[in-house]
Design a protein that fits this description.
Blueprint (H helix, E strand, L loop, with lengths): L2 H14 L2 H6 L22 E3 L23 H7 L2 H17 L4 E3 L22 H16 L4 E7 L12 E3 L2 H8 L1 H8 L5 E4 L3 E2 L2 E2 L4 H11 L5 E3 L9 H6 L14 H8 L5 H17 L16 H4 L6 H14 L1 E5 L12 E5 L24 H9 L4 E5 L15 E7 L7 E7 L3 E5 L10 E9 L5 E10 L1 E6 L2 E5 L10 H4 L5 E7 L5 E8 L6 E10 L5 H10 L3 E7 L20 H11 L3 E6 L14 E4 L7 H10 L12 E2 L17 E3 L8 H6 L4 E3 L10 E3 L3 E2 L3 E2 L5 E9 L5 E11 L10 E10 L4 E8 L6 E3 L5 H7 L16 E3 L3 E10 L2 E10 L2
Helix pairs in contact: 1-11, 3-13, 4-5, 4-13, 5-7, 13-18, 14-18, 16-17
């Protein structure tokens, strides 16, 4: 269908709708879908999280539906590869469609302002250009598969602390140069059809009703023609949000929009023309992605999308996830330890709690259920087979709560709160974390209960820990005997399940290796709530000498691989980290293992920077992030040298958190967070303050060697509105294939106002065979040399009040706000990181 036909069809639909029908379309029907208007043939449209995988119309843990789990945002940022990130977008777009969804709640392009921000793992970088280029690539890939993306969270939503009330106080120049740029690129270069507002306020005004952001910048300046969606439960006002340009309130039923918006129109508080524009924008996007036609159009009587396609596991999607995980791994240090050659390594000690489990994603709404999980230990044992003896010791315990039981549970749901009468639904959940958003049987009103059962066969005899966390009330029975009771003695409120869950209650049970025990959880919905959930935890209790055993294993091995890091408890939506240190005694564990065996590789399995006080002593350090379902396979390939660690840091690793530019202004207080560092974010700050760092922005080593030759600029004197191109020769002078990232930073020599020493303005990733050379072309337009001038609203008054002897400074008759380029001398620093410059090009910008 032609574009004009689409417009005509939407125009006719809007004209055919009643006021109430139009208003109904501006609020969701439920948690994951819009309202259908069957009278005119409009189906409901489903949305899905998210950045780590297309989960479908369900919460994490709500159903057994599986999805390809791709590497987290920082991992994708570490690839520095727009083409690869575009392929990741294609995977998520295709899987969203396979689950009957036409809106993908991704990508997240907020900035790594502090290493402690709880949701950093979901975002790409501390640098706005890298974030925006990769965000635009993800958008292009996903939308090529017939879904609309919603770039999020617009804007200044860079921490989790009090995120529902916090006001991000950001000056205009900083807002433009740092925090808005990723959104601008995702829209202007990626063509995103949707954008999601943040929970927070921006300079005092709620983002979902911020007229300057949603109209002045987003639509009038950037030309955005898509729809604006609220974050879940973030829309609180009817009139202000509608006038500002919010189009869709989620989830439903609506509070601010829907019937409330129809009433506001009837009362004359909102123009009906405003409502018409909201609906026009929504339907135009839905039309463009094919939501009204074809096999995936969902009408009111359609079956639940997650019932039809409960498993997603395509070989080509696995391949993309594997390449992304491999290319995201950053070799931070290597004293000749890596790769581990089988001919010289016959016994390896694999150490660390995260080595024995698959920590592949952060916590919160981005979580998905992958089709399988493989631990680093399993992947290494499979890769080495009988050639290498692998011993494993966890060493330390880092969990705040016990991980959920990792095997399926059969669930029987009953009407009523006492688990009596007929079973009204049966489901199988993939693990011990069982979540329902609303009643598990929508047609069954009132309280409900369920019984979840499984059989556990412990591998060894010893003490095992069982735990319960509940939203509602629950009880645990082992072989029919009550062990934990949250009915008669309900625990206090905790932080799990977005702050709705209880504190964890715990019991230790002695089990016999190989002897099966029946495990049963009884649950009651207790009172009406938005979420009903229980988490059954299960783990082997760590022996008192766990660290000593790990050190002894390392001392007796040819090499040691220590996997340390965080989990989805430590890095999660809903809260920030309190420390940059590794949780528990992991730093002590690493120090002792390195002392016992200098041939030690430390693998850091975390989504954000950690302090690494042992980095100088370790033989090698490899950052693997939360690498998605293929992380362990990718890790085995990189450690053994089958593949190349292709990543570069998308964020600076400081020596200590106190050096970070946001320190003292993060996470905020009294409902305000002041962005006092201004434009000096990330590497811009460390360079301006001459602060040493653990590892600089853009850093990453290789198993081969590259040279970056003398750049050839198209000119050294740049005229107004010209685009400069620079050709940069790159050669692989090593003995194996590998990847290099050529990074170009612009440095003003004598800036008129405070500017960063240099800023990333172009980059290119190349893959070369041994002895192969190529030439990469980098392009810089005038914007690459510009800064934002906020202007002054009082030019004339300032000029009249200037003291007679005053000279210098900006002329009070200067134009209003806009991007400015000062003429003069600039340098281009071309190299491998913000701290590793291979070549410098000097330029002059004309007036």
């Amino acid at each position: 269908m032609a574009v004009n036909d689409d417009v005509d069809r939407v125009t006719r639909l809007v004209a055919a709708l009643t006021l109430d029908e139009k208003a109904a379309l501006t609020a969701g029907e439920d948690m994951w879908s819009t309202v259908a208007v069957e009278r005119v043939g409009l189906p409901k449209v489903r949305v899905t999280d998210g950045p780590s995988g297309a989960r479908g119309a369900a919460l994490p843990g709500e159903v057994a539906s599986t999805s390809t789990c791709v590497p987290c945002g920082t991992a994708l940022g570490a690839t520095w590869d727009p083409q690869l990130v575009e392929r990741v977008g294609e995977v998520l777009g295709a899987e969203a469609r396979s689950k009957a969804c036409h809106v993908l709640l991704a990508p997240t392009v907020n900035i790594h302002r502090s290493p402690l921000a709880g949701r950093n793992f979901e975002c790409y970088s501390e640098d706005p250009l890298l974030s925006g280029v990769l965000g635009a690539a993800f958008v292009r890939g996903a939308q090529s598969r017939g879904v609309a993306t919603t770039v999020k969270h617009f804007v200044g939503n860079d921490a989790e602390f009090e995120r529902y009330t916090m006001s991000s106080e950001i000056d205009e120049r900083t807002l433009r140069e740092i925090y808005l740029l990723p959104f601008e690129l995702a829209i202007r270069e990626g063509g995103s059809l949707g954008i999601m507002t943040g929970y927070n306020r921006m300079n005092g005004a709620w983002c979902s009703e911020h007229n300057e952001l949603l109209h002045g910048i987003l639509r009038d300046e950037w030309g955005f023609e898509g729809f604006v969606i609220s974050d879940w439960f973030a829309a609180a006002s009817t009139v202000a949000s509608a006038r500002a340009g919010l189009d869709l309130e989620m989830p439903g039923p609506g509070r601010a929009f829907g019937a409330a918006l129809a009433a506001a129109v009837r009362a004359g508080e909102v123009e009906e023309a405003t409502l018409d524009v909201q609906v026009q924008r929504l339907l135009t996007v839905f039309e463009r992605v094919g939501a009204f036609d074809g096999e995936h159009a969902l009408h009111p009587d359609s079956a639940d999308a997650t019932d039809a396609t409960d498993v997603t596991d395509e070989p080509e999607h696995r391949a993309v996830a594997l390449q992304a995980a491999t290319d995201a791994m950053v070799l931070l240090k290597n004293d000749g330890v890596l790769p581990l050659a089988t001919r010289s390594v016959r016994r390896v000690a694999v150490i660390g709690q995260n080595a024995g489990r698959a920590v592949i994603m952060g916590g919160g709404s981005s979580q998905v259920q992958p089709p399988y999980r493989v631990t680093p230990l399993e992947a290494l044992r499979t890769r080495w087979g009988d050639d290498v003896s692998v011993v494993f010791e966890p060493g330390v315990d880092i969990d705040t709560t016990v991980p959920p039981l990792s095997q399926p549970m059969a669930v029987e749901v009953f009407a009523g709160a006492d688990r009596q009468g007929d079973v009204v639904a049966r489901r199988e959940h993939p693990n011990g974390e069982i979540v329902f958003m609303g009643s598990p049987v929508p047609e069954q009103a009132g309280p409900f209960s369920f019984r979840a059962r499984t059989t556990v066969v412990p591998p060894d005899s010893g003490a095992y820990v069982f735990t319960l966390v509940q939203v509602g009330r629950s009880r645990l029975l082992i072989d029919g005997t009550p062990v934990l009771d949250g009915f008669t003695d309900p625990p206090r409120r905790g932080t799990s399940f977005f702050g709705l869950g209880s504190e964890e209650i715990t019991a230790t049970v002695e089990l016999t290796g190989g002897r099966a025990v029946e495990v049963e959880v009884e649950y009651s919905s207790d009172t009406a709530a938005a979420v009903y959930a229980v988490k059954l935890g299960f783990a082997r209790r760590q022996p008192a000498d766990a660290m000593e055993r790990a050190v002894a294993a390392a001392a007796g091995a040819d090499a040691a691989v220590v996997v340390v890091g965080t989990t989805n408890e430590w890095e999660s939506e809903g809260h920030d980290r309190s420390s940059m240190d590794l949780p528990g005694d992991q730093d002590k564990l690493v120090a002792r293992v390195v002392a016992a065996n200098p041939n030690t590789v430390v693998v850091v399995n975390a989504g954000a920077p950690v302090t690494m006080p042992w980095a100088d002593q370790a033989g090698a350090v490899l950052q693997v992030w939360f690498g998605g379902q293929e992380m362990s396979h990718a890790l085995a390939g990189v450690l053994t040298g089958d593949t190349e660690p292709g990543g570069r840091l998308p964020t600076t690793f400081p020596l200590r958190v106190e050096h970070n530019p946001s320190f003292g202004n993060f996470p905020g207080e009294n409902d305000e967070v002041r962005y006092g560092e201004g434009v000096l974010v990330g590497y811009r700050w460390y360079e301006a303050r001459h602060l040493p760092v653990r590892f600089p922005f853009g850093h990453g080593l290789s198993y081969t060697r590259f040279t970056i030759g003398a750049p050839r600029p198209s000119t050294t004197i740049i005229a107004a509105d010209a685009t400069l191109t620079i050709e940069v020769p790159v050669s692989n002078i090593g003995d194996r294939a590998g990847a290099e990232v050529v990074q170009c930073y612009v440095a003003p020599v004598a800036p008129r106002l405070t500017r960063p020493a240099k800023e990333l303005k172009a980059f290119a990733k190349v893959r070369l065979e041994p002895g192969e050379s190529t030439v990469v072309t980098l392009a810089l337009d005038r914007r690459a040399f510009a800064y934002w001038d906020p202007g002054s609203p009082e030019h004339a008054d300032l000029k009249s009040r200037r003291p007679f002897m005053a000279r210098g400074g900006r002329d009070a008759t200067a134009p209003g706000p806009g991007w400015r380029v000062d003429p003069g001398r600039y340098e281009l620093h071309i190299g491998r990181s913000s701290a590793d410059t291979a070549q410098v090009v000097r330029l002059d910008l004309a007036e």
